[in-house]
Amino acid sequence: MKINRKYLLAVCGLGVLAMNIPVFAAAGQWSSSGNIIYYNDGNVGLGTSSPASKLDVRGSITLGTGLVNENNYLTLRGPNTPYGVNSNQGIKWKFSSAGEAEIRAYRGISWDTHMDFITNGSSNLNPQVRMQINGDGNVGIGMIGDNLSKRFMVRGQSEFRDYSTLNSGDSLVIMRAYYNTPNANSNLLVVGGTGASNWEKFIVKTNGNAYLDGKLTAKSIVVKSNAWADYVFEDGYQLKALKEVKDYITVNKHLPNIPSATEVKENGISVGEMQQKQMEKIEELTLYILQLDERINKLEQENSELQSKLTY
């Protein structure tokens, strides 16, 4: 059968037109300007027929080619005004039948920008800012805003430890910091070392008391005390007779008003209190020496007078 060439061309042309008509009919919202193609209105879906936003992609997205010196960015444009959190631009992760997480940035009152890290708690349906990096590079966990004035600030109980990267011979340092602890005997700061038991080597209590399990080396230590031993030199001070001191030592095997070896072993000593007691004994010794010196001088005087009488 002989086919008319003009008829064949007409059929092909109608076929092409027929194929193009649905495309342009359904995509009448698309426009082009030079190399730019844009969508006039509505939502675009990739992998979905019911897009929920301007661009809804059901699947993975790949940016860049992996070439050397290629810089690829996902840019979120923010407004010039308003300032602060009202200029938020962020990325959200939403989980089905669960909470969400977000990283967002916002501008300050000048060129400064701030970044928040937001998560949901297990019992709190409202996402909360957990960490912030402000425009000065200061990092805050549990605290944000104007109070974030130091390089790293934490509000709440904190613990720093590392079990996973230890090698043979390495030491382990664990530090815990507590905030708003319930009573004066609670730990405010704990620093520990190796070992599962008795690891607490340095403790600071909420009342200011500190505990150190080890040796302390320092160039200078200043101990402030409200009492000192100058009361020994007061007129009404009752200085024990040396015979009384001797009898006490014979029975108790330590000086009066000084703790015994057993007491020190069980309870330790207070540096400030012990300094005061030691100074008390030094000042008492000074009084004893002065008394002896007075007696010696008196005996020498009497001896000199006797010598003078014997000479005549």
Structure, described:
This protein is α+β, with helices and mostly antiparallel strands. It has 4 domains: 5-54, no CATH class; 84-154, no CATH class; 158-212, no CATH class; 229-311, no CATH class. It has 4 helices and 15 strands. Strands 5-6-7-8-9-10 form a 6-stranded mixed beta sheet, with no helix packed on it. A 5-stranded antiparallel beta sheet has the order 11-12-13-14-15, with no helix packed on it. Strands 1-2 form a two-stranded antiparallel ribbon. Strand 6 and strand 7 (113-119) form a beta hairpin. The N and C termini lie far apart (179 Å). Mean pLDDT is 81; it is low at 3-27.
- Into which percent range does the helicity of residues fall? 25-40%
Strand order of the largest sheet: 5-6-7-8-9-10
Using the CA coordinates, give the radius of gyration. 43 Å
Integer tally of domains: 4
Summed up, the helix count is 4
Average pLDDT, all residues: 81
Strand content: 15-25%
The unreliable regions are 3-27
Biggest sheet record: 6 strands, mixed
Order of helices and strands: HEEEEEEEEEEEEEEEHHH
The number of distinct β-strands equals 15
Rounded to the nearest angstrom, the distance between the terminal CA atoms is: 179 Å
Which structural category fits the helices and strands? alpha+beta
Shape: rod-shaped
Q: How would you summarize what this structure contains?
A:
By secondary structure, this protein is an alpha+beta fold.
